[in-house]
Amino acid sequence: GRSYQYLLVEADGPVGIVRLNRPKVLNALCRALIEELADALGAFDRDPAIRCMVLTGNERAFAAGADIAEMAGKGLAEVTGDDLLGAWQRLWRIRKPVVAAVQGYCLGGGFELAMGCDLIVAGESAQFGQPEIKIGVIPGAGGTQRLTRVAGKYKAMEAVLTGRMIPAREAEAWGLVTKVVPDEQCLPEALRLARTIAGMPPLAVQMAKAAVLQAYETPLGAGLEFERRLFYSLFATEDQKEGMQAFLEKRSPQWKGR
Ligand code: CAA
């Protein structure tokens, strides 16, 4: 595969691993990093050998936000004209599950990036937050929307209006993370979850992700209809036949991915 300036990318069997690698600035998410990240996750998303992805940072930071140095001097015409955060849209279109493994600072755009992942494993050192208000702006890559849908209005308002950091255990109580583990277990646990998901039938995995995400997009009736259609469509796959037959024959299924 290609090499990246701001990422370390490797495959561990069916699990694609992307490590944000701009440690001197706590993985500040400059535009080029987001472009690379969308390229790397997009390549895994299209690779039939990859079934799930893990996105991580380092012990000190998952990411401390968008790159303030890159944004500081820009005006309204430039940020709109260049569509400063436009590349982030590509991240929200990844179809395979992405597990975030978060240690240390997970702030601003870093938090928004984690919330755009499908599962979040947090080390005990993780600190989440939307500090944008302290530098004269607001979250711009989903924070006001995803945080509010997960934690509710009153928790989101406090986070977005004060910029306070939310430690891992509190984030867990808010429903913001899948689980909290000791720091040294953070990446291993994320990989364990990813391998479990990678062992599931891939078309059903993709439909399951799409169906859960649809819950954030539509009223209940439309979401239920969407789910039912995807459920029915899986009966056109060989893996549905195999999965149900294997259950009845009391043996393990062999997935074909079709
Ligand atoms: N952008 C650019 N550089 C950053 C950065 C960021 N978001 N966060 C940290 N850095 C840099 C620092 O400038 C510093 O660089 P130098 O060594 O060259 O001075 C280096 O990373 C280490 O950071 P600190 O010295 O500040 O480390 P600390 O331990 O004292 O503090 C911190 C850690 C509390 C996380 C602090 O760095 C901080 O507050 N960072 C900014 C957090 C922030 O405001 N994020 C939101 C960005 S806006 C955004 O994300 C918009 C959006 O919604 C998309």
From TrEMBL:
<dbReference type="InterPro" id="IPR018376">
    <property type="entry name" value="Enoyl-CoA_hyd/isom_CS"/>
</dbReference>
<protein>
    <recommendedName>
        <fullName>Probable enoyl-CoA hydratase echA8</fullName>
        <ecNumber>4.2.1.150</ecNumber>
        <ecNumber>4.2.1.17</ecNumber>
    </recommendedName>
</protein>
<dbReference type="InterPro" id="IPR014748">
    <property type="entry name" value="Enoyl-CoA_hydra_C"/>
</dbReference>
<comment type="pathway">
    <text>Lipid metabolism; butanoate metabolism.</text>
</comment>
<dbReference type="InterPro" id="IPR001753">
    <property type="entry name" value="Enoyl-CoA_hydra/iso"/>
</dbReference>
<keyword id="KW-0456">Lyase</keyword>
<keyword id="KW-0276">Fatty acid metabolism</keyword>
<comment type="function">
    <text>Could possibly oxidize fatty acids using specific components.</text>
</comment>
<dbReference type="GO" id="GO:0018812">
    <property type="term" value="F:3-hydroxyacyl-CoA dehydratase activity"/>
</dbReference>
<dbReference type="Pfam" id="PF00378">
    <property type="entry name" value="ECH_1"/>
</dbReference>
<comment type="similarity">
    <text>Belongs to the enoyl-CoA hydratase/isomerase family.</text>
</comment>
<keyword id="KW-0443">Lipid metabolism</keyword>
<dbReference type="GO" id="GO:0006635">
    <property type="term" value="P:fatty acid beta-oxidation"/>
</dbReference>
<dbReference type="InterPro" id="IPR029045">
    <property type="entry name" value="ClpP/crotonase-like_dom_sf"/>
</dbReference>
